[in-house]
Amino acid sequence: MSQLPKQSAERSVPTSADVARLAGVSRATVSYVLNNTAAVRISEPTRRRVRQAAEELGYVPHAAARSLRAGHTRMVLLPTAHAPVGPLYHRFLRELQWALRRLDYTVVQYGSLGLDGDEAARAWAELRPVAVVSLGEVALTAHGVDVLKRSGAKAVITLGPERVEGAHSLVMDQREIGGRAIAHLIGRGYRDIGFLLPEEPGLGLFSRPRLEGATEAALRAGARIEPLPMAYDEESAAALAARWRGLGLDAVYAYNDEHAMLLMRALQDEGVEVPRETAVIGADNLLLGKLLRPRLSTVQIDLVAGRSLAELVDRVVRDPGGEPERHDLMRARVVHRESS
Amino acid sequence: MSQLPKQSAERSVPTSADVARLAGVSRATVSYVLNNTAAVRISEPTRRRVRQAAEELGYVPHAAARSLRAGHTRMVLLPTAHAPVGPLYHRFLRELQWALRRLDYTVVQYGSLGLDGDEAARAWAELRPVAVVSLGEVALTAHGVDVLKRSGAKAVITLGPERVEGAHSLVMDQREIGGRAIAHLIGRGYRDIGFLLPEEPGLGLFSRPRLEGATEAALRAGARIEPLPMAYDEESAAALAARWRGLGLDAVYAYNDEHAMLLMRALQDEGVEVPRETAVIGADNLLLGKLLRPRLSTVQIDLVAGRSLAELVDRVVRDPGGEPERHDLMRARVVHRESS
DNA sequence: TTGAAAGCGCTACCAG
DNA sequence: CTGGTAGCGCTTTCAA
Fold this sequence. Notes:
The structure is a homodimer. Chain A is of the alpha/beta class. The first copy, chain A, has three domains: 16-61, Orthogonal Bundle (434 Repressor (Amino-terminal Domain)), CATH 1.10.260.40; 72-171 and 305-330, 3-Layer(aba) Sandwich (Rossmann fold); 174-302, 3-Layer(aba) Sandwich (Rossmann fold), CATH 3.40.50.2300. Helix content of chain A is 44%, strand content 17%. The first copy, chain A, contains 14 helices and eleven strands. The first copy, chain A, has helices spanning 16-23, 27-34, 44-57, 63-70, 87-102, 117-126, 142-150, 175-187, 204-221, 234-242, 244-247, 257-269, 287-291, 306-318; strands at 75-79, 106-110, 131-134, 155-160, 168-171, 192-198, 224-230, 251-253, 279-283, 297-303, 330-335. In chain A, the strands form two sheets. In chain A, strands 7-6-8-9-10-11 form a six-stranded mixed β-sheet, with helices on both faces. In chain A, β1, α5 (87-102) and β2 form a beta-alpha-beta unit. In chain A, α1 crosses α2 (27-34), α1 (16-23) packs across α3 (44-57) and α5 (87-102) crosses α14 (306-318). The longest helix of chain A has 18 residues, at 204-221. Chain A is elongated and about 85 Å long. Chain A binds a DNA duplex through α2 and α4.
């Protein structure tokens, strides 16, 4: 007030006090009007003046101030994936966000690239989210969960291959995927089975449990599982294909459809016939599998609907004491086509 | 204090005052110690006591309170994509986040699914981000930009096909992609060229400018461009392929490699030979293009490094008055293989 | 029907 | 070297 603004751009952001001043009312009244507070009656002319003033100033409430006052937020924090994720996962995430928004939560994805589990948990806790839904990208520890809970998070939900102590863990058992694929191959008479293990580090969380499941299934049937590390590029695939015949395998589970496509092409270029010499099965049931020749057998993965997870989040937020619920998060079944 | 806590879980979240009490110092001292404030000297024993107390209570600072006090945040808000995005985009986003974090920003992705441009801008403004980097998923208007700026955002940067008034727009000219593809086909002697237009709504922002660019290139050379709407599924592709010969086309640009693969398969199933009867070119230079037979020609798109965009964000935040800089955000070049 | 004022958690100024 | 304290923007009692 005492001196003229240096810049037009320097004008400070309007607060509810500014709105009150312009409308000629108190800040309390502004709050009542803009929040449609039911417990109090404000005359229509006053309401109009307030809204008008807010509009004129371009007033936008300050979320931090509001939640500071309220003592809690409606923020649900979703740690962002590091690894490239497929369309399945993408759709699930979109559904989840949409459903949470409908339940009046503010959904925020927080990239925690380069932070370890406990650092990440601390960073998240600073934002005081009311819920955290961790989809397995960050290895949340019992300690991390505790930090979040102590910072006021009502719900800490993890989806992943393993339980996390203290969290409301929904175990997404990736072992089933590997198990189904191998059982299918065994059922069709294959006995020496390769397991394509992607070398990308971010995928370990998914591929290792699948390998476990595969190994168990093979063990039960007396079949052999051979882990085959391979990077997602042509050279690596070609190198693997070149030594293929020496491996003595009659089938391979290729982690997912994209890896399967890569390997299948390399095998074909090497003159290995699919499925006569070697059967191939992928996972994820991507469209591309149907376009390949031979058409690619695959493991179809059905994720829980984002909507029902959103409802679970809401339930846990409202009653944090409730018993952890068991959920079937994932269902896997084989789609048999021509490659196996 | 007056009554015993109802639940062990009900214990409230520790504040810096709690830490101060436990350490036997003032809140100011706690703040100095935990923030390593250089301007003030605190004795080593005191520091230790404070840190010890903070540790013991599991104290985590309250970001909202801090930024309220500070009058600004270090939050960079990235609106989340609605449409399924390719690996290119994913990598770019990851790089950008990583680089911003290194510059000490808190990066947050905010899904604005189902909000229009102005609603979204308001929702973002409530969080008082210091910068917003909109990658074209939400149609930000001049008004939306104004709302953000008035709420204190120093940098509003849009990457997209079109300039946005008031924002620091980096025009990512998707027309070049369509243009290059068509120029390539024309250079190889094709004159009647289809333009595969994906029907997914989220892709319109990308496909329309590409069509424009394609049309311009065709016009210059006296070639014909035929827009061909197609959904990303087998039925739609088969339907298009079934009427292919009636269209009188000798080449087609298929939006991206995945659509190209889908269409190429449908054409082959219909007995249309590629490239003899119809040449095909995609875009994005995905690995799968190299695996197809014939190998797929494509438009390789080089996005600006996430790192340099992060540096731009930082520069604009520090000097919001600076002149908008021109940037080459994207470079496109044709990779010729066998399908064209 | 409206206004005054307290206080959420934090930091930075100014005293001691 | 440390503590008291004002105040960021907001909501919500309580009083007028």
